[in-house]
Design goal:
Layout: E1 2-7, H1 14-24, E2 35-42, H2 47-59, E3 64-74, E4 79-84, H3 88-100, E5 117-122, H4 125-133, E6 142-146, E7 148-154, E8 160-167
Antiparallel strand pairs: 1-2, 1-7, 3-4, 3-6, 4-5, 7-8
């Protein structure tokens, strides 16, 4: 069974993001909006080893703010997404920290540059950029606080079964 490591952000624009995903993302019915940190992988490691590796990374990462504030994409492969601006560096550091762990190191796709985002859709490559350009980007922009990392099983039907949520180290946000 495949697993992945991800963040399920709490979005103020969840209804708008979900509506776009329902129209354009073939996985919208299987998994809620998320940011992948370790992409789907097949491993003989037990869940306990996966949880321990993620717990180490989570403990070393204070909670942080993220702004998903622009549309981007991989037009050649038909993907478009809501990209992280503020907080993207921290997401990238977390992604890198996880892939440096021996539990995940063999699954790193060095051929794909990491760009923290929430996938909004996948369409034919010829239509990806135009579809993304037609979105109301301002209606999708959201900021959130990332306080936990989730681990999921990807079930045979493609559904996501999040079986663990590990808290990040405590951080003090302005106004707390």
């Amino acid at each position: 069974m495949q697993r992945s490591v991800l963040i399920f952000p709490t979005l103020t624009t969840i209804d708008a993001v979900t509506a776009v995903r329902r129209r354009h993302d073939p996985l919208a019915a299987n998994i809620r909006p998320h940011v992948s940190l370790v992409f789907p992988f097949e491993s003989p490691a037990p869940d306990a080893a996966i949880v321990a590796a993620v717990a180490r990374a989570a403990a070393a990462t204070p909670a942080f703010a993220v702004a998903f504030d622009r549309i981007g994409g991989d037009w050649a492969n038909g993907y478009f997404w809501l990209a992280a601006g503020t907080g993207a560096g921290t997401l990238t550091q977390l992604h890198d920290r996880l892939y440096r762990d021996p539990v995940f190191a063999a699954f790193l796709r060095a051929d794909i540059p990491y760009q923290p985002h929430i996938t909004l859709g996948r369409v034919t490559p010829a239509h990806a950029e135009a579809t993304a350009a037609g979105l109301d980007a301002a209606g999708l922009v959201a900021t959130t606080r990332v306080t936990a990392i989730a681990i999921e099983h990807i079930l045979p039907d493609g559904d996501s079964d999040a079986f663990a949520s590990l808290p990040l180290a405590r951080a003090v946000f302005p106004g707390q």
